[in-house]
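Question (not urgent): is this output format expected?
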Amino acid sequence: MATARKITVEIPNELLQRAQKASGAGITQTVRTGLQLLAASQAYDDLRKMRGKVRFSRTWQELKDDRE
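Got this back:
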């Protein structure tokens, strides 16, 4: 991260506790992880919209064999 902003947010205590328990991290890292996941969800939505519209020159079997 090049720059950071200090912010103040009000979060329900139960939600924060559940999120911290799930992440196993402190408050700051838990909030950062949540924001990263939210930002990534847009990219996943865009990829889902492309399903069936992109043709690849190689089959999934060929790609799998390439890994070995």
